[in-house]
Every structure is written in C-alpha cells, then in structure tokens.
Amino acid sequence: MSIPHSLARAARNAVHTSPLLQDPAALRGPQPRPQMRRYEVSTLLENGNVVQTRHIAPALPLFEDAFCAFSRGSLIDTDCGPMAIEDLLPGDRVITQDGSAQEVVWKGSTVIVPGRVSATGRDYRLTRIMADAFGMQRPMSGVIAGPSARLLATPGHLRALAGDQPMLTPVQHFVDGMGIIETAPPTPIEVFHICLRRHAVINVDGLQFETYHPGVQAVRVLSQAIRSLYLNLFHHIDQLTDFGPQAFARAGEGEIDAIPA
C-alpha cells in the first residue's frame, strides 16, 4: 500500500527540520552561512538631496522583493512623460492610478540571474508580457517583469477569492504560455523597485503595477536583528508602520494577504 502524499511530505519535512532525526555528526559540523546579496539604494532626503548607498544584506525573500519588480527599459508614466526605470530618480513624480502625481522617495536595484536557482531554492524567473496581452495597448510594447512584481488585476482562478474587489496579484499567476510567458536568461539582469510617499499603483507601459510595500503579513515574524538590517535599506522610514496602509488587497498563498485599512 502506498503512503499518502501528505504523509510522505510531512515525514520529509520532519527529517529536514527536527534535530532529533538528523545525523549528529552533521549537526556538529559547520552550519551553512546565509547567502548575502548586494543592494543599491537611492533615497530622497528631507532637504531635497538624493543619497546613494550600497548594502550587503541577506538574500531573503523579504529583502529581495524590495528590489525585483521591474527590468531595465520598463517605462514608468511620470508628469514629464514616460521614463525608463533606470533613469528614474528620487524626487521625480510618477502618475498613480487615481491620476495624481507622487514623488519617488526611494529606488532600489540589484542583480539576479533568472536562469539560476538560489541556495535557498528560490526561482528568479522573469515574466514577459507581450504587447496587447491584456487588451489594446495593454501593454503597449511589451513588459518584462521581475519575480516580485504585482499587477492590479485578477486572473480567472482567483476571482472567487477576490469577489468584486480589485486585487494586486503576482505576475506569475497570469502566465498562459502564449501572450504571457516565463523566461530565464542565463546572464545577470538588473532589476528595480520604487517607493512613493504612500503605497500606490502606477502605469508601466500601459499596465498597472504596484509600488513597493512589504505587506502586512511579511513583517510580523522578523527577529530584531533582521528587522534592523531591513530598515537600514530605507532611509526615509524609521519603523515598519511608516510604509502606511496598502492601496489594495493582495493575493497571497491561496488567500487574501492583507486588506487595506
């Protein structure tokens, strides 16, 4: 009689996570050091100056998601017209979903290799959205989104979860193998993300993407050390609540991650 998949998976997890079931010699040996990554940050200061800093921090999803939304060449709508993400600077004003213009207060970038799985098992595949995949001029010329990008749209399989409310959904949920595909080039790719003074949805080449917000659930179980390293990336905030409320609900792992207050 075969073992049910759920029981087999639970057994594997127990072996991997319980010290009592692991080889004592392996436990006495040197433990693997956490993988680190270099992050580039530009921040708008209160006096209007822009400061650029370089950080070495853990390659954890919470950290990486702050940098991995847009690839080079992504066109952001600003009050001066479309601007490539790599040319956008803190202090520039981008057009949000409600038609207002907000200042960019933070921009981060890092380099990933989409065709390589990280030491933590994370996949960095990019999502290529062909022109007109979501309708006429949506997007206008095609978009390559990073692994942490979210669209203000709801795919068919999540409509029962969202109801009639708009929802921010990871781009991977829209992959259909035709107009929206995954791609994993073997060469390094520079990716970016931005923060505004408040969480918002912006136009990127005709599609509506969110600006950076860590989310409500992601920051609840941080240790003090990790929290300090994370906050050190954001010179424009002093504490996690300074990110403010989310503009829209998010799709999480099979549930609504957070509903804005």
TrEMBL record:
What the entry lists under Pfam families is as follows:
Hint_2 (PF13403)
* InterPro entries in UniProt: Hedgehog/Intein_dom (IPR028992), Hint_dom_sf (IPR036844)
Q: What is this protein called?
A: Hedgehog/Intein (Hint) domain-containing protein
**Which top-level group of life is the source organism from?**
Bacteria
Q: Which residues form the Hedgehog/Intein (Hint) domain?
A: 68-215
